[in-house]
Design brief:
Elements (H helix, E strand, L loop, with lengths): L4 E7 L1 H4 L7 H11 L3 E8 L3 H14 L2 E5 L10 H8 L4 E3 L1 H9 L19 E3 L3 E3 L15 E4 L2 E4 L3 H10 L13 E7 L3 H14 L4 E7 L8 E7 L2 H14 L5 E2 L2 H10 L1 H4 L4 H15 L5 E4 L4 H17 L7 E7 L5 H17 L3 E7 L2 H11 L5 E3 L15 E3 L8 E3 L7 H10 L28 E3 L5 E3 L17
Parallel strand pairs: 1-2, 1-3, 3-8, 13-14, 13-16, 14-15, 16-18
Antiparallel strand pairs: 4-5, 6-7, 7-8, 9-11, 9-12, 10-11, 17-18, 19-20
Length: 491
């Protein structure tokens, strides 16, 4: 993997005084890491021109990319442009293209009169700057579409988190590792303290010293685990091998799945963090299902899509919480399309391995469609099954009047349909998956928002945009603002 590095400079007296919390660096670190960029250093500096200049000059020599946040605006303490210019021994001047942009969006009425139009200060940028004009994406408004200044390898972003996050998302295609490589990560949760596992961890570090980076973090106040171990590598195979080594050598039963603790703890945070109450409702439906039916009488429908991925994760959490001693396999049903995406097939297989560990075993039955036929085959082979967990949402076709618990239609094989996420919105699904870092099918990062077969599914046109070279790209599925257009990629 080609090493590609970044340094982040956060600018603002208000950060150093503790008047506001810096969330931009955390957001950017996660985003750059997902793009295959190694963040080497974060620096916080005051609104001082010389200090900004010194830090920018130093960072631009050390790292492939430098991203600054803050100090961009029309007031006296917005001095980032001046500091960045000084780092490259330049002055600032009104950029006509930038000024015209303000004129076009009716922020100013005269590009030649700075005193009458203080917003023109924003157009006073380093002399050799280039402007990164945000691409208008059909699913976005113009609210945050402000040009970003770039000089050499330095990108100057605003500090307001809403603006910052929007613009990073908009311009992330310029921030990716040019080799296309990425990092592969894994987390293991251990119910032992670090001192109890240090010899095994050290042996793993030595064994995989050329391919995997390990991290070990003691956790305080957790009910189910005491230590979190992280694994990172340039290839997924190396991560898999390192995880397997730890699984085989750590004390039996010491590797645990804390998702139940995480999700049930999440319920307490619903009002605080803006999480949808739909999460609480989904957990209640699952709890009711397992009160009425034994886990051995329930199967989960799983086709690799985002909805059933969220459902499977929730199901695993509730089973871990309510039936900690239940070690029997959970039955899963995968109805395969005639023309499945290879990426979906790969993700389904990966999920079986991942959740088999969490659930002691995930017994996947793969049957070629249609759904009615597949369900009939499953129930004929497993007559003890009484309920099926479905990732159906009310916005799906023919689901407007569906209930959380409802028997299949008379003409279908008879089983109780249980739909825990029935009233979730498109945004609910993505907030859940991303807040909990739940792995999902890679197609969603390529602009697909609803998956069917290979021959009748395309990236959602609402997520398309064209870069400066005329190449069409697609934003990730989670950036779609209008959930009503979710199925627009279906042919």
């Amino acid at each position: 993997m080609t090493s590609h590095t970044a340094g982040i400079i956060i600018i603002g007296d208000e950060i150093l005084k503790g008047q506001i919390i810096d969330t931009n660096s955390q957001f950017l670190c996660k985003r750059l890491h997902s793009l295959g960029i190694k963040v080497c250093k974060i620096s916080v500096v005051s609104d001082d021109v010389d200090e900004i200049a010194a830090e920018v000059a130093d960072f631009s020599q050390k790292y492939d990319k430098v991203i600054t946040s803050g100090g961009v605006g029309p007031t006296h303490d917005d001095v980032t442009y001046v500091g960045v210019a000084r780092a490259f021994r330049q002055n600032v001047q009104v950029n006509k293209e930038f000024a015209s942009w303000f004129l076009n969006v009716d922020i100013i009425n005269d590009i030649n009169d700075i005193e009458a139009n203080p917003a023109l200060k924003l157009a006073q940028i380093p002399q050799s700057s280039t402007l990164l004009i945000p691409v208008k994406k059909s699913h976005q408004s113009n609210t945050f579409s402000v040009p970003i200044v770039k000089i050499n390898n330095v990108y100057v972003f605003p500090g307001i988190p809403q603006y910052f996050e929007h613009m990073v998302n908009n311009l992330e295609h310029l921030l990716v590792n040019p080799s296309g490589d990425k990092f592969y990560n894994r987390e293991l949760y251990i119910n032992k303290g670090e001192l109890e596992i240090i010899s095994i961890l050290n042996s793993a570090v030595e064994k995989f010293k050329n391919s995997v980076v390990f991290g070990s973090y003691p956790e305080v106040g957790k009910e189910t685990y005491l230590t979190k171990i992280t694994l990172e590598s340039k290839t997924s195979d190396c991560v898999d091998e390192a995880e397997k080594y730890l699984q085989e050598n750590l004390p039996p039963g010491s590797v645990v799945a804390p998702m139940a603790e995480v999700i049930y703890g999440m319920l307490k945070e619903v009002p605080k963090k803006g999480l949808s109450s739909s999460v609480s409702t989904a957990v209640k439906v699952l709890e009711k299902c397992f009160e009425k039916y034994h886990p051995s009488e329930v199967f989960v429908s799983f086709n690799g899509g985002k909805d059933c991925t969220a459902l499977l994760h929730l199901t695993a959490a509730v089973l871990n919480k309510k039936f900690p001693a239940h070690h029997a396999p959970l039955q899963a049903l995968y109805i395969r399309k005639e023309d499945p995406f290879p990426e979906v097939e790969e993700f389904v297989n990966e999920s079986v391995v991942r959740y088999s560990f969490i659930l002691y075993n995930l017994n996947l039955k793969t049957i070629c469609g249609p759904i009615k036929h597949g369900l009939g085959v499953l129930l004929k082979e497993n007559p003890h099954l009484k309920a099926g967990l479905m990732g159906t949402r009310r916005t799906d076709p023919y689901s407007e009047t569906l209930k959380s618990f409802q028997m299949t239609d008379e003409s279908w094989p008879q089983v109780m349909r249980v739909c825990p996420i029935l009233d979730w919105s498109y945004q609910d699904v993505w907030k859940f998956l991303r807040d909990l870092s739940v792995p999902y099918c890679k197609l969603y990062d390529e602009g697909y928002t609803s998956l069917d077969g290979l021959n009748n599914t395309e990236p959602n046109p609402a997520l398309s945009y064209v870069d400066a070279n005329g190449v069409v790209h697609y934003s990730p599925a989670y950036t779609l603002k209008d959930g009503a257009t979710e199925r627009n990629g279906r042919l």
